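This is your field. Have a critical look at both lines of this record:
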Amino acid sequence: DADKTPLQSQADNTLSLQANEVKETTFAFTAAALGTSTMNFTAQAGANSDALMVSIPVLGQQDPVYLATSFAIQGSATGDWDESVSLPEAIPGSGSLDVLAGVGRLAAVMG
């Protein structure tokens, strides 16, 4: 399923080799999401063939960022308080948001 494959690339890269010949080939990939991508490599020589399956981790582009804030709020007649967070653009599945809230400083001490 292409939507769940973290690495996306061209379908094939074919090389022709002579006996004892060594060649290098490269593959261009696009990271569509974080996770593990499985790559299949096959080789064929006449009626003989072999294959290799490799799992490759697709990791984020940077280390996690941690932010913390605390502030005192005043009570209101309705008891409502609005707070907002703007999240940056990110690769699907690459981020998370944890919110810890509490009365007084206990949430920060226990967190």
